[in-house]
């Protein structure tokens, strides 16, 4: 009850609306089971005026993709003065943009696959030599493997570009890393941020696509992943550093590839990870001894506005 009236923001207008509806429903039910005064609020059906009228004391952001994970709703919540879960508007926007994320990670000396930015079809010509084949074309501002194509031969580049380009004005071309697919959930803020147990994902046919992520019962998840302790610690440390470099807080999930030489490579950071029945953060939390309800309450309890209000600055100076 100390958390007050809580809104669970879900749905939205992105290509990941379907997943967000499932995440929001799951979070809502978990919070209700923990005695929280929670209410669902679909940002794809209701506007900011209606959100303000609800007079929520805090909100749990269970939105995925554009307008919900990219800093847009976070900025609006700052203006409305409503405390919210997860990263602030700047960290959310940067982490949503895979190109900007890779630039910051490279500058910080973190391992991430080599890449090129593709502005038009002419830029495709240099990719096989610059990155070698196979490679990946990605829409840099989408998630859940939406707007993503694997290219194994040069004559596939144009078709892959045509499939990906409707999602973004520029495309990320990334060196393909062959190996084991891992993911690392991180909770907390700053020096208090810590990794949950690492999960290894084994998808049917080796393709962890939209269907495999959210609907397939054939995808295998190993948690904790079978890794030497030293390597597990190294990967967890890299994930936490990647989280801090982007300025993330609350919770997020880093996707990592482990190559044949046992070298980890950061792919992306998800600042509003899925919370469905197939989702990975709840799985990692369970391995750490935390129920889904406890996880949701823990994340919710850290909700806050990230921009210090002027009247609070005056009070602090007094």
Automatic annotation (TrEMBL):
<dbReference type="InterPro" id="IPR011761">
    <property type="entry name" value="ATP-grasp"/>
</dbReference>
<keyword id="KW-0133">Cell shape</keyword>
<keyword id="KW-0961">Cell wall biogenesis/degradation</keyword>
<keyword id="KW-0436">Ligase</keyword>
<dbReference type="Pfam" id="PF07478">
    <property type="entry name" value="Dala_Dala_lig_C"/>
</dbReference>
<dbReference type="InterPro" id="IPR016185">
    <property type="entry name" value="PreATP-grasp_dom_sf"/>
</dbReference>
<comment type="pathway">
    <text>Cell wall biogenesis; peptidoglycan biosynthesis.</text>
</comment>
<dbReference type="Pfam" id="PF01820">
    <property type="entry name" value="Dala_Dala_lig_N"/>
</dbReference>
<protein>
    <recommendedName>
        <fullName>D-alanine--D-alanine ligase</fullName>
        <ecNumber>6.3.2.4</ecNumber>
    </recommendedName>
</protein>
<keyword id="KW-0573">Peptidoglycan synthesis</keyword>
<comment type="similarity">
    <text>Belongs to the D-alanine--D-alanine ligase family.</text>
</comment>
<comment type="function">
    <text>Cell wall formation.</text>
</comment>
<keyword id="KW-0547">Nucleotide-binding</keyword>
<dbReference type="InterPro" id="IPR011127">
    <property type="entry name" value="Dala_Dala_lig_N"/>
</dbReference>
<dbReference type="InterPro" id="IPR013815">
    <property type="entry name" value="ATP_grasp_subdomain_1"/>
</dbReference>
<dbReference type="InterPro" id="IPR000291">
    <property type="entry name" value="D-Ala_lig_Van_CS"/>
</dbReference>
<dbReference type="InterPro" id="IPR011095">
    <property type="entry name" value="Dala_Dala_lig_C"/>
</dbReference>
<keyword id="KW-0963">Cytoplasm</keyword>
<keyword id="KW-0067">ATP-binding</keyword>
<dbReference type="GO" id="GO:0016874">
    <property type="term" value="F:ligase activity"/>
</dbReference>
<feature type="domain" description="ATP-grasp">
    <location>
        <begin position="102"/>
        <end position="301"/>
    </location>
</feature>
<dbReference type="InterPro" id="IPR005905">
    <property type="entry name" value="D_ala_D_ala"/>
</dbReference>
């Amino acid at each position: 009850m100390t958390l007050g009236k809580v809104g669970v923001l879900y749905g939205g207008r992105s290509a990941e609306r379907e997943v967000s509806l499932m995440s929001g429903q799951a979070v809502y039910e978990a919070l209700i089971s923990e005695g929280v005064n929670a209410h669902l609020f679909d940002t794809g059906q209701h506007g900011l005026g209606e959100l303000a009228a609800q007079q929520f004391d805090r909100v749990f952001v269970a939105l995925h993709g554009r307008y919900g994970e990219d800093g847009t709703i976070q900025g609006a919540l700052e203006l409305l003065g409503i405390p919210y879960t997860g990263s602030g508007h700047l960290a959310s926007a940067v982490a949503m943009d895979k190109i900007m994320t890779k630039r910051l990670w490279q500058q910080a000396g973190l391992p991430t696959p080599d890449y090129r930015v593709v502005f038009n079809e002419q830029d495709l010509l240099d990719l096989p030599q610059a990155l070698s084949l196979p490679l990946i074309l990605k829409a840099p501002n989408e998630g859940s493997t939406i707007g993503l194509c694997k290219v194994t031969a040069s004559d596939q580049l144009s078709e892959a570009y045509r499939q990906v380009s409707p999602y973004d004005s520029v495309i990320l071309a990334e060196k393909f890393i062959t190996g084991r697919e891992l993911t690392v959930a991180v909770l907390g803020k700053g020096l208090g941020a810590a990794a949950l147990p690492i999960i290894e994902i084994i998808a049917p046919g080796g393709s962890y696509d939209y269907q495999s992520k959210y609907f397939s019962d054939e995808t295998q998840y190993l948690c904790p992943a079978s890794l030497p302790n030293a390597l597990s610690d190294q990967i967890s440390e890299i994930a936490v550093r990647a989280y801090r470099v982007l300025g993330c807080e609350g919770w997020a999930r880093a996707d990592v590839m482990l190559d044949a030489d046992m070298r980890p490579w950061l792919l992306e950071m998800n600042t509003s990870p899925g919370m469905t029945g197939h989702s990975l953060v709840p799985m990692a939390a369970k391995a750490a001894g935390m129920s889904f309800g406890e996880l949701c309450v823990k994340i919710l309890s850290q909700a806050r506005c990230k921009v210090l209000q002027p009247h609070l600055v005056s009070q602090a100076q007094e």
